[in-house]
Specification:
By secondary structure, this protein is α+β, with helices and mostly antiparallel strands. It has 7 helices and 12 strands.
Length: 255
Amino acid sequence: MTEDIEFVGETDQSPQGKCPAVWRDKTGLYVRGKTVTDPVVLARLARDNEEAADESTVWLANDMIPKVAEAAAGTFEPGRTGHGPVTVYDLLRQVQRSALHLEMRDTYDASAPAFHDWLAGGPGDLDWTEWNSIVSSAVERGAEFRRARIVSEPVTDYIAWEHMLTEHNIKAGEDVRWLPRRRAFDLMLPGADFWLLDHKLVAFNFCSGDGTDTEEEEFTSDPDTVARCLLAFERVWERAIPHAEYKPPRRSAER
């Protein structure tokens, strides 16, 4: 029964959350690791023990050896849990070189209380503590944060509010630019917003039709996808207007 399965541990060496890990139940161990596909290595292992048709060979880093030993001996504390699904924030905390963000929607979560506060004449501010920490720490490590936004004009209320808030992104250490959609018509762009991290990993995020975050994310390190997203971002960036120079046009009746 799955309720008997207990989590023992995972590696500390995978910032993408695709972690080797080990579990135990009454029947034995469950081990997740990197699948071994090198034919030379597989041939060497087969000299000692041949892999059956319903088996696979995985590799574990050295830091997993004590965790496997704990699982085998049953000396781990019950109730352990893994880090759960990886989030973009988890990945951003590991950035070493660059974090590039492309946003292409005109509305995101329009139900946000701060947005409605701003519409009603209030300051409409957010708590920036966590974001400031993530960005400032990365910048101190030498990483760059660049954010490009493609927007329709006249801009929506949501974009106008977002533009007002962008001073906080700038203060945290980001570089932000805006590209009117009319000037992006001939660019070949991905179908969803994305983060490109250290030119190695793309994290796509998805929204429902009204802009609400669906909390669905897709991560890929496929070289072709990384290259296409990097090219798309840089093409947008070279046309986009620095935040300090962009004055979003609005309908006259709007705030």
